Amino acid sequence: MTIEQLIDDVIDREGGYVDHPDDLGGPTRYGITHRTARAHGYAGSMKTFPRAQAVAIYRRMFWSQPGFDRIAPLAPHVAAELFDTGVNMGPAVATAFLRRALNALNRNGRDYPDLPTIGLMDDTLLAALTAFLKLRGSAGERVLLKALEALQGERYLHLAESRPANEAFLYGWLANRIGSL
Predict the structure, then answer these.
(1) Which of 25, 96, 101, 102 suits a disulfide with 147, CB 3.0-4.6 Å?
(2) Strand 28-29 to 32-33 pairing
(3) pLDDT of residue 104
(4) Which has the closest alpha carbon to 97: 167, 137, 153?
């Protein structure tokens, strides 16, 4: 799956203009919040926010800047999941999920050293992913994907439990974000 396909899928899932009263992000269009659009120079109404700007923001903020494009050649399904999780929870959360999952799957450091659970994409993270995939192969990518989705699902449940207004979104998050790739 290409980044263009991933972006199209996110935009299809997020839909057009939305201003849900329980959404702390405020008005969105194509899943881009009012605040994010403003931070990228858009000054108009979110009702008319251009799709092309949404595509550019998704590519830059949620693919290139967090380094998920560096994972795609190694593990395309993992990269796609990180992109989707990054869009919905933030790239730092997606990267932390990957770090945590790789740590839990390294057999107490026998396969590769533990990673700090906080941090950006870097060569150490890529080296751990490469070592994991070399040892576990394509089945390993599927298992890693399950671990990432489990972490994401748990976070959605926590968000709904800690802020009851988020229950309005929980069903959709679980239906459209977990196992949707």
Answers:
(1) 101
(2) antiparallel
(3) 98
(4) 153
Contact between 29 and 54 under an 8 Å Cβ cutoff? The reply is yes
Residues 6+ apart with CB under 8 A from 80: 1, 6, 72, 181
Cα(73)–Cα(84) distance, rounded to whole angstroms? 17
Q: What is the DSSP letter of 128?
A: H
pTM to 2 decimals? 0.92
**How many other CB atoms sit within 10 Å of the CB of residue 78?**
25
Give the number of other CB atoms < 10 A from CB of residue 144.
Answer: 22
Q: What is the pLDDT of residues 70-85, one digit of tens each?
A: 999 999 999 999 999 9
User: Is-contact 97 144, C-beta < 8 A?
Assistant: no
pLDDT band of 179, cuts 50, 70, 90: confident
What span, in angstroms and rounded, lies between the C-alpha atoms of 30 and 10? Answer: 8
